[in-house]
Structures are given as C-alpha cells and as structure tokens.
Design brief:
Blueprint lengths: L2 H12 L12 E6 L4 E5 L12 H10 L8 E6 L5 H9 L4 E5 L5 E4 L1 H4 L10
Parallel strand pairs: 3-4
Antiparallel strand pairs: 1-2, 1-3, 4-5
C-alpha cells in the first residue's frame, strides 16, 4: 500500500479525533506485514500531558490485538510526529513513516532517520 493510500485512511481517522482544546485533528494508520491496518486519532484531555497522539493510539490499538514490534511495516500520520512518538516509531521498528508536512507535501523516512541517538534496551 502506498504512502498516499495510507494517508487517505489517516485523513479519515482524523475525522474521529477528540480535540476540543486545540481543534487540531490528527489521524494515523498502522500497516502490518500481513496486510492488516489499524487506524486511530488523537484524543485530548484538559490536563494536556494526558492526551494521546494519533500514532501512539494506533500503535496501542494494534498492540491490544497482539501485534508486537517487528510486525509493523509502515505508518501514515496526517502531521509530523512529535519527539515522543518518534521514540515509539523507533521501538516498534517501522520500516517506513509517511507524514504530511505543513506545506502539504508527503515525507517518507525510516523510523531510525527521524530520531538519532534513540533509547534502546541493553543487548543481553
């Protein structure tokens, strides 16, 4: 599935965002190697740190269905991911991360390109 096709699904997911404070609706779609797709949107809270970004919501939705790091192929996000989400994208080992830039163009990166010097678990 192309980045544009995934972004179209992310746009549809963004329509379900709960963003009464910022009114900034974000959607994300996770594509698995087996073809399954998990979509989610951002959910805000009056205590701002308790809100959930769309990409973390989509990853959590997939994880709750038994998906694990390495099962994922790509993610599409309707906005550039924040730093915390970039760590999630690295840890879940996404091969491709597609997101829409502020000017409307589409960026595609490997997750590791988005966050140099990531936190990794020690090798045992």
């Amino acid at each position: 599935m192309s980045g544009e096709e995934l972004l179209a699904q992310a746009d549809a997911a963004a329509a379900h965002a709960y963003a009464p404070y910022s009114e900034y609706q974000v959607g994300a779609v996770v594509l698995l190697h087996d073809g399954r797709v998990f979509a989610a949107a951002n959910v805000e809270n009056a205590a701002y740190p308790l809100g959930v970004c769309a990409e973390r919501a989509a990853i959590a939705k997939a994880a709750s269905e038994g998906v694990r790091p390495g099962d994922v192929e790509a993610i599409a996000i309707t906005a550039s991911p924040c730093g915390g989400c970039r760590q999630w994208l690295h840890e879940w080992r996404f091969e491709r991360v597609h997101f829409r830039r502020a000017d409307g163009t589409v960026a595609t990166y490997a997750a590791d390109e988005l966050l140099p010097e990531t936190w990794d678990l020690p090798q045992t």
